[in-house]
Each structure stands twice: as structure tokens, then as C-alpha cells.
Request: fold
Amino acid sequence: MDHSGATEVTIALSGVTKHFGDYVAVERADFSIARGEFFSMLGPSGCGKTTTLRMIAGFETPTSGQILLEGVDVSNTPPYKRDVNTVFQNYALFPHMSIFDNVAFGLRTAKVPVEQVRSRVMEMLDVVRLPDMANRRPNQLSGGQQQRIALARALVNHPAALLLDEPLGALDLKLRQVMQLELKRIQRDVGITFVFVTHDQEEALTMSDRIAVMTQGQVDQIGTPTEIYHTPATPFVAGFIGTANLLPVTVVSQSGDDVTVETRLGGQCTVSAAGTSYAPGSEVTLMVRPERLVPAGAPLHGAGSGASIRAAVTSMVFQGPVVRCQVRTAAGADLVAHLGPEDDPAAFPVGADMEMTWSRDGAYLVPQAIAADEAGVTSMEDDQTAA
Amino acid sequence: MAAATTDDTGLRKGRFAPYGLLSPGILWLLLFFLVPVVMLVKASLSTKPSRFAEPEFAWDFSNYTAALSEYSPEFIRSFLYAGIATVLAILIGYPLAYWIATCGGRWKNFLIGLVVVPFFTSYLIRTIAWTSILQDDGVVTGLYQLLPWVGSDGRILATPMAVVGGLTYNFISFMILPIYVSLEKIDFRLTEAAADLGCAPWRAFRKVVLPLSLPGIFAGSLLVFIPAAGDYLNARYLGSPQTSMIGTVVQNKFLVQFDYPQAAALSLVLMVIITVMVLVYSRFLGTEGLAV
Amino acid sequence: MTNRVTRRRFLVSTAALGGLAAGSTALAACGGSEESGSSTTAAGGGGAAANTLTFDNWTLYIDKPNDDLFGEGGTLAEFQKATGIEVEYTEGINDNNELFAKIQPLLSKGDPIGSTIIAPTFWMAGRLLQLGWLDKLPLAEIPNAANLIPSLQDPPSDPTGEYSLPWQSGMAGIAYNKAITGRELTTMDDMWDPAFNGKIGMLTEMRDTIGLIALSLGIDLADPDSQDYQPAFAKLEEEVANGQIRQFTGNDYVDDLEQGNFAACIGWSGDVAQLSVSNPDIKFVVPESGGTLWFDTMVIPKGSTAEQIEAAGKFMNFVYDPVNAARITEFVQYISPVQGVQEELRKMGGEAATLADNQLLFPNASTLARLQTWGTLSVEKEQQMDEEFARISGA
Reply:
């Protein structure tokens, strides 16, 4: 329906809501996915991303709202009548069939002529680089191989969109990284729209053209990996994608693109408004990525005049490419700075008082307030590695 | 030094361990299968000089010819009834097992328990209870007589229908349980996968669930067919003189007529026929289903 | 298969054991091995102490067989009081053929079976006697044997009367449900009335079924080796083939009769005596052409010690005292083989006195005149008749 855009739309969700009893799994999801796009839905478990995918696949029916596939409303169409295919988290290969029969399953169901089935299956096994496995059983394959077969079984049908539900979750880290690149390659080769569900932000950043970050049934932000990383729409997005130091600030004044804010400690700094206008006195959040936070005196990352905050060093850990420096402000917020490998950890003994600085462009104003106890560094992943 | 000693005994044990490990199995097989079968074969080839004398081994094959020539109607009837009962047990048992496995939720164990509950009552009493339920003056028979082709003097008891029904009822649990177990093992996300690949529900069932539950159907069929083919109680209590099965004959030969040789011959013939049928059946169903 | 349900029915109706009631008729009907237990061996009579006696009998065939169910007292307790001999009483007999299958391997090798007294039906006792597996009764210990009713003295199964003493007796005749037949039945020909097609039952007990048909054809039972029973088998086969006969049953005929599955069948007097109390439509008649008289009889299989045999004699003497016999009759409601029981029952008064006038317990002279007891069949003839009967009855 939507021909106004430059790109054709494969999937469009408008006001899609799903309730399970009293529980709201997905609330008013509105977005569209372009043809050939690698689109990811990212969020912690329980955020509604899988439910959204299952509604697109047809395994769940929206409580309200519409799902358009190639411009046609499929909200109440059963899955077997939808031109989408799914790669399941556990692969769901048919254990009683050979690999060939698994891959041929959809074609045979669609009554594709026998000789075509043969050539298309073998072609697809070539695409996933497992041409010799046709006669094996699924349980004779490794996890990564099963993953590729699941992909082949879905792609061989040339669906309008391929839905992937945490397909790499069961693989070990190394294989996962290989498969990320492999998936991206296959997607470029076949040119099919991929809708990818994951809780792994790095995975989403690596592969996606666009990412929808979801939490608690809501889509917080949709954008390219760069947009989402550098200009998060909410404190949650800021914290979920990478590591972010968040400080609650109050807007003092705005002049043009410059916004002056004041921290809880009384210090003031200037940040880019990024096209938003702020009323003086409004509570917002200041985000500084760890790599933009540097000790006073070190060269600043990004242009613009600096700002600084005093803090005491609480830990200093050498991590190879970076030195992870954790400090605590007088207000009690923990901040993390990634110093370069050339910085000497010994120069900042634990307990030492130091001044942390950042540039105007090194900070970003998230137009939402956070509570005082949410101040500081927020990153699930960073907490894990630090532990 | 301690390690050396253990290694040493380990090696010595190692040489004989395989035989040692096998011996309980071999002993079991000898004691509970081979010895009884040999005794049965021996009895079947014996003669009795007089009715109450001990059988004497005599390579007498006439017991077999007599068994086959005189009792082929009973054999045919046994396999026919058992076969129909098995098919009925699948037709009734499969949907039930499927329903429990897919819709049972937290009631699953309770529902499976209900399937097993009849076993708490004696098999015999359960069979005889049917004579009350199906009695000529009863409600069930009354309803049955309303069928246009039956008429007011139609009866259920003392007919092949009652015998087959009794066999089905008595053994259906042996069908439901293995089918349920095989369905339980199926990852029902596979049906989602099938639907995702274009299968309407019935086709998804036929292509995915049914093949994956074949081992259960196979096991259930054997567990129903084999005891049903050798059964005599259902024919005795629910049947008529015209519905007697081979089990009836064996029981009478053994307990009333003391004709142990012929009873043994009949049992062996039954065993051999069932074994052949099972082999053919497993070939027909294929090892594919069993391999899962 | 002779396993009379009456003894169990009696338990249900008098002892009113609610929990047992549901299964009891069914249990009683079983010709199988479910309840037979292992009492013949468990009794361990061969090795029992000198002042104990082992007796394996049919179920519910004596008053108060155990104290737990029926309270204290009763024949067994009285006997112990009188003689100091404790009776290890077991209810292991369920079926004559089954009993035979159980004891045959032991007796044929001369081993004791574990019970000093057992109570097979007369023809089975006759078979055991013919096989030389019985000891003589210590008649010197049993002066009360003189109380045996004349009709059961020196029966063909024990021509000299030295090896057996009847325990209880009964009749086989026509049992019918008048609500279904709509009329009284008096002859075997009434059973073959086409109106009752598919509603007639026969007993799996060959002697009773063939006996009644043979009598209706004028064939005598007293000296069976001189008779040809083929016409009786032919008649039976004809009625099976034309569908007149619906089923061959054991005791379960009582349920079929009550439920209306059978209009009429061959049945046993004792069962009907009980059944007719609750259902007056159920009737019993000895057909005009005659019925059979059977009896279960106490015998002593070989292998018991002299002391055990002596104790057995004392017990038999005790139960042949009319006072003791009447107590047993009051409970089991069969025909007592002991003279004077009828008078004793009258003396007891109350319900017991009404039993004294029950034709099924004390048949009158004209009924008795129509009853015949099977003579002893030769091994070959019995085998041939059993096979023929099995063939026709679909067994």
C-alpha cells in the first residue's frame, strides 16, 4: 500500500498489540521493514520481541492492530498461508527425515515439480555450504550445521521475508561470530528481507541495517546501529546498547543547538541539542560513553569545549585494548572510562581523586529523566565482564 | 604404588569383564525364555500312554498336525478378533493419547493416571462387569436395538462384537501408554515448523507427528495384539460357543483334558505365528520409525 | 467346572461386607485361577504337629471358616474344644480340574500334597480312588458315619464306602427366570422352545449338562460305561448350532439369569435357593425326565501319617453329628448328607426352622426319585466325552 517511500515495504505493523490474559506482551508496535533489509528486534528476554516475530509468522494472532505482508493484511491468516519462513531457535529440524527431505519439505508441500525440488534443494545446500550432507540425519550434524540446514530449509522457499528467532543463541561464541558474518553474506546473496530477533546487542549491531530496541512490550527506538549507539532515544536504549555513563541533569538554557545543563553537583556543561528544543528547568539525562570520558589533561575525543567532574578512583583494570577505569562521583554515581592501552594504571591508584572530562560532542542529551539511583554506568554486558 | 595395584587388577578384570557383564543377561534368557520354550517343545512332541500318565517324549509331530487341522477356525478367529481389537485400540487410543499429550497441561499425569486406573481392578472382574453393562435388558442393548438394522431381539452379549469390544477395552491402555510416551517425546514446535513451511494442520500431523509417533503405535500394537490373540476370558464371558478363540482351547486342553502335548503344540503354533506376524509387521512399518 | 457361587453369595447377603460385595459375584464366577491361592501346599499338613488337622475345602463351605470375618465360635472352634485338635482350614479348592492339575504331579510320585482332607466332587474322588491315590478312612473313629443318608451310601464313585464321606450335596436341574419365560418350565423340551432361542445357558460342567440331556433322552447315568451318550451330544450340538444355546457358563449363570440374558439354564439348587430370596422370579425345577445329584466328598489323599488320619476320622465323626451338621447347613444351605439335620434345624427355630421346609435343601421323595448320580466313567470314556464336550461347547 505504502508506495510513497523510496524503498518497497515488505512488512508493516500498525498498532499491533498482544495480550496474554492480563499480561501485555506487545503494546502498539508501529514500524515497517523494507524489502531486502536486515532488520533486528533487540531487547532483554520478555521484552516482546519474540512475540512480535511470532505474530509476523502467524503463530500468534494480534489482540489488536494490523500486520501487512507485501501490502496485504495477514493479521488473521494462519502461518501455512503466509509467505514467510522461520528459522527457529532450536532449529526444529524434522528428526525422522534426511537433510534433503528437510530442506525439500516446503517445496514438496507447495507441490513444486520433483526435478525442480532436487535442483533448488542442492542449490540451497550449496549456499549454506553443506552440499554433502543431503543424506544425513539431523542428529548426525553439529549445531552449526543444523543451523545452516534450518536456514536452507526456510530460504529454499524464497519467502517474502525470513524470520529468525535467536538462531545463534545455542552456538558457542566463536561459531556465533562466524555465523553472524555467514548470515550477513547469505542475506546479501539471496536478497531476502531478514527479521532477526536477538537479545545480544553486539550481534544486532554487527548484522543489522536497522534495529528496533524493545523493552517491556514497547519499541523504544528504531534506527541504524550508529543512530542507536550515538543518539539513544531513552536511557534504556543508551544503557542496553554498549556501555553508557548516565547522569541526571537539569536544563539551564538553550541557545541554538547548544544546551546548557547542570549536574546534581552543581557543575554546568554544554551539549548539542541534536534538533530538540528543551525548556529550561526540564529534567533530562546526560550520556557520556566510556571511550569519551578521559582524565583531565588527556586529549578530548570530539569537538567542543569540555566539561569535567571530580571523582575518586574505585578500580582500574587492564583489559588489553583498553584500561577500564571506574570512578565514583561525590554524588555517589559510578562512572566508567575506557582509557587507552598507553595510559598507565599505576598513575591512578585506587582512592586517588581525579578529574574526568569530556567534550561537547562526546556527550549526548537523552530527552528523558532518570532517577537519582539510576545514575552512573549502565550496561548489563559491562557488569558481566567486570564480575 | 597403590595405583599400580589397581591397574593390575583392572587389567585382569578387564579380560573377563565382558563375559561377567553378560552373564546375568544370558542367565536370565536361559532361565526365563530358553528353558521354558525347550520344555514346551519337548511336551509338544510327547505322547501320553493314558490320560493321567506323564507325557513321554516321542518325536510325535501328530500334535501339530492335529492342532492345525482341528483348530484352524479358532486360530483364524483369534487373529481376526485380535487384529480388529488392535485397530480399534489405535483408532480410539491415538486421539486420546494425542489429546492428553497436547492439551493435558498440568492435568497430564492425572489423565494418564485415569487411563491406568482400570488396572487397579482385576482383569476378570472388569470383563465380567461388561456382562452387567451390556445385559440384554440393559440400557446399552436397548439403545443398540434402536438401530435400524438390529431389531428388538438384537443382543450385544454372546456375539463377536462383544468379544472384540472386550478385547479392545481390556488392552487399550497398553496402546494409549506407549503412544502417549512417544507423543510426549515429540517437540511440538516441529508442527509449528511444518506450518511455517506451508502445511495445513492435518498435513503437518501426517508428515511430522504421525511418523514420529510410529514407535508408540508399533509398541502399542504388539502389546495389544499379542495378549489379545492368546486371550480366552473375553471369549468365555462375552462370547458364545461360536466365538471361542485359541486361548479357550489351550486352557481347556490343559486344565480339563490334561492333554499337555496338544496344549503345548497349540501354544507353540500360536507363538510362531505371532512371531512371524510381528516380523512382517515391523518390516512393513519400517525401521525408520523405530530409529528415532 | 464346579465352583458354586452360593457359598460366596451367602457371604455377601449375610455377612453384609459392603466392600466385598461389588466384586464378589464376579469373583465367584471365575473359573480361572485368581482366587485359588496356594493353600494346598501352604497348609503344610504333611509336617503339621500331631494335634492339628489340615483340611482344604471350597470357599465359604463351612460356618465361620475364620474368626476375623465371622467372629468367634463355630464348628472348627467347637471341634477343637471337644478334641483338642486344631484344624488348619483352607479354602483352596476352586475347581475340580484345577485341583487335579495341582495335586496330580505330587500324588503320582507318591508325595504328600500338604492337606490331610480335601473335598473334591464325587467323580473326581472316584478318579483319585481309581488312580490309587486315596487312603482308607479310619471308619473305627467315625461311628457317626452311620448317619449318612441312604441315597448317598456306597456311591459308584466309592462302591465300598471305605474311602469317602460326602461333605455337602446338591441338585442340578433347570433354573429359570419366570419374568422372561412367562411360564413355568417342567421338562428339558421346554428349554428347546424356539421362543427362547439364544436365551438358554448350559453349564461347563460336562456331567450336569450331558447328564440332564441324557436323562431327557432316556439314557441312564448310573452305569455310564454301558451307555452310549452320543445322542445327548448330538442333541447338544444341534441346539448349539441353531443358536438356541447362548453360552456355556460356570457359576456366572446366576448373573445371566438375573439380568435376563438367560431365560433358562441348567443350574444348581444351592444357587437358586439363595437367588430366589431376593428375586422370586428365579425358580429351580428338577425336570420330569430327571436331574443329577452331585456331592462333594471328604477324602484322604495318600501321604498323611497315622496320627493325621486318626485326627481326620475324629473330625469326620464330629461333622456327622446332626447337631454340628445342622450348624453347617444353616450356613451353607446345601443338601446335608447327614440324617437328622432337618429335625435339628426345626429345634433351632427362627430362620433355621424355615430352612427345614425348603425343598431345595430337603427335597421330597418324588424329587429324590427323579435324581440320578453319575456312575464312574472309565478313563477312556471320560476322556472321549470331555473332548466331545469341549468341541461342542467351543472350548
Remarks:
- Residues 1-48 of chain C have pLDDT under 50 and may be disordered.
- Residues 208 and 298 of chain C are 21 Å apart (CA to CA).
